[in-house]
């Protein structure tokens, strides 16, 4: 299953032609794509949009706490404020630090 990152970058603007038709014609079946904004266009196949809201500070602090168990709740809050990273980026350093390839559950 193909994944196209930042598909909105393929949209036309000004003198740059729209390349989204190429994606639609070359990729059949289920295609996953990420975008930073909705794309206003007529699609050949109606897309399904899933919007993921940004994490709150409390949610990010909980992830930091889970990734670094020795950290205090205060430390997790500071880390969440100083390093507002995506969840996968919060967990990855903890996995490498612990010498494990498995996610911390």
Please explain how this structure is put together:
There is one protein chain. The protein contains 4 helices and 2 strands, in the order E-H-E-H-H-H. By secondary structure, the chain is mainly α.
Q: Mean pLDDT, as a whole number? A: 83
What's the Cα radius of gyration? 19 Å
Reading side by side through the largest sheet, how are the strands ordered?
Answer: 1-2
Distance N terminus to C terminus? 27 Å
The largest sheet is: 2 strands, parallel
How many H/I helices? Answer: 4
Explain the layout of strands and helices.
Elements: E1 3-4, H1 20-26, E2 32-33, H2 57-67, H3 73-82, H4 87-98
Parallel strand pairs: 1-2
Sum up the structure in keywords.
mainly alpha; single chain; 2 strands
Q: How would you concisely characterize the structure shown here?
A:
This protein has 105 residues and is mainly alpha-helical.
């Amino acid at each position: 299953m193909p994944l196209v990152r930042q598909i909105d970058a393929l949209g036309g603007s000004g003198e740059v032609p729209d390349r989204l038709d190429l994606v639609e014609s070359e990729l059949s079946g289920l295609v996953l794509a990420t975008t930073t904004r909705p794309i206003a266009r007529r699609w050949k196949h109606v897309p399904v949009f899933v919007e993921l809201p940004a994490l709150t500070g409390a949610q990010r602090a909980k992830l930091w706490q889970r990734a670094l168990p020795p950290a205090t709740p205060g430390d997790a809050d500071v880390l969440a404020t100083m390093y507002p990273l995506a969840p996968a980026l919060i967990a990855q350093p903890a996995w490498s630090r612990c010498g494990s390839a498995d996610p911390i559950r």
